[in-house]
Task: structure prediction
Amino acid sequence: MKAKKTRAEIQRAYRERLKEKGAEAAEKERRRWHARRQLKKVKVIADLCERDKRAVRRKWRTTKAEYRRSQKNKESGTPPASGCTSPMGAQRGRPKVPYRRRKAYMMISKLNVALESAEAKSHKYKMRWLRLKRTSDKRTNQCEQYDNSSTPEVYHLNANTPSKSTPRSKTRYQLRHVTTPTPHMKKSLLFHNVMAEQNENARKSRMSQKVPFSVPQQILKKYRLANFARKVGYTVSASTKVNKQLGRGHANALDDATKDLVQEFFERDDNSRLTSGKKQTVTKNKIKKQKRLLLDTVVNLHEKFCSEYTSNCISYPAFARLRPFWVRLPTSKDRDTCMCKKHTNIQLLTDKLFQLGIVGFKNCEDVLEQICCDMNEKACMMRECDACRGREINFKESTAKDDHLVIWSEWTTCKHEYQKDGETKSTKLTAKCVKHGTLKELKVLFDHTVRTEFSKHVYTLRHQFRAYRSLKETLQNNECVIHIDFSENYECKYGSEIQSDFWCK
Result:
């Protein structure tokens, strides 16, 4: 069996065949190269960018220099130097820098370090001199205005006005004329200043009438007076709750009256409805409440709250944050199945007009502000007021024309006939139907519905809620309010029944 040739043997045989063929093989290789050149598979130096051209020429020069060096060594008969590396090898390490340049670089680095150190030292002594000068000037001008019982003022370098001194600085100022004060004297005076400052802070605080005066342990530890306080019979407070309560609150913090007002607003029956299920409760921090579901979005309720209570207007984030935990947003399982037909139909028309850009509001009740003087007046809402009876709804101009075809939805009650026991019977069914018409017909329908039905309906609804809320607020001890609601259909079932009876129902 013939042995398989290695790759080197195959290449050697190929070169031998090229030598035998000679000019014919060279011509064939030249034609092959030009064909590859036409296909852009081979790049010459003219096809390269300037940067690649410089790299190729640098490589050529290095290779040519190495070739000439090797030829010269062959002619002279001396071997190449041992330190000589191949021109194709990578150069390692950074290039050698001349000695003078290295020496100058080191000298510049040392001078920069010395300059930074000198500038820092100069700035330190300059600031120290300014502090001493300012302190001496202030003491010289004001020293005679204070006696031993007065309160000094310490001036800071970067402050334009004097700031209140600390208990320790007060003590030093009060003992400035004493040559050799005893430690007990210093401790007693320092303890007096600490107690006086805490008492002043408690007096200025708005919580001073609710929380008894006390100095926390951390204040006494700060001035190393805890043991001294115990010796004089003072009880040291171990907690910091008093300090937190005595501290000044946030400048824009809401008062308790506004918080209670927001909670009552969320619990009103015109803003949220009470769930009827026995297990529909919410518990938080061991407080169990019956769940209530919002009847409108929080954004609309915030606008309603600000319009009703103008003196207690708050921001939307604060309003949403004060929502009670048992007042929840309705989910899919809490869907409302007792919606008002008139409200829903006018809201569907408002949504369609807002989608077309005809009106600029999303809530259907906002249209009443355009045609009524006051939404709380009966004459305006019943369309009996002479001032606003002739007001019209402000429809915006849109790209859609009046003869444009429009589709909207509407809840309608229609007569439905069906067959039962061979007889034709009729009943009324309420369903959500799709209506077709022009944009002009939609505007006319919306204007007519708002003027004739919706305004009266909204006033009646609000009046009923106000009366109901007034009755609950003025309820006497021998009176009660009974809220009756119709339950859904129920069926009687057996506790245990056969399979055929269960599937036949």
